[in-house]
Amino acid sequence: MSKIPIFMLLLFFIFQSCTKNEVEKASQTIRTKNIKRYVKEIGSDAFMGRKPFTKGEDTTLAYLKKEFQKIGLKPANNGSYFQEVPMVEVKVDPAKQMKFQTKNGEVNLDFKGDFVAFSRRLTDKVDLDKSELVFGGYGIVAPEYNWNDYKNINVEGKTVVVFVNDPGYGKENTDFFNGNAMTYYGRWTYKYEEAARRVLISWKFSIMPLCTRASSPLLSVCGWAFISVGNPWVAHLVCAIAAVAW
After folding, report:
1. Fewer CB within 10 Å, N side or C side of the chain?
2. Cross-strand partners of 238
3. 216 with 188, same domain?
């Protein structure tokens, strides 16, 4: 979400440094047919999805460099058009069943059919064996709404189960977590970030955003069906090194 304001800020500085005639001249070079050509080409099968660590990445970088040179751009990063971004690929291979011991007996969930699981931690194994579960509501700490899901629960050494979205969903009050419009508090990334802050104040625990088929009505408020969550998270995850904490 931060890319849009940054991009607009860059455009502001660029236009501030150009005369009106220069801006008008530059705008005349933007053509719908060219944009269509770019999208059609880079979206073709030849680029193999543009996935990092594949031939598709090399093909994409070569294409971008060629197009930059064609329109007269000069490399600005120490003679390069690109900025190095350290990345990692994580293979997800969870157990085929997630087993819960309850006071009413054992509950088993099947991988892909009932749940998905993933982690960005750079470790050979993430083990939650015999970890006690504690429900953490939405996993949100929002002082401006007088809301703190962690206030009265003991999470030390446990696995916290939290809902996706935020408490405003289903309510008409836009002053309370923006009503039906999701705030950042409802995003997956926030759940992990807030959990990381709990760790920084010396608590040690794991967090599990509720992502089973039973919760698919909750997922739908994010615009996702359960299959949308399952498909990308049952294979290999590619992410920047800086984002692998959770």
Report:
1. N
2. 89
3. yes
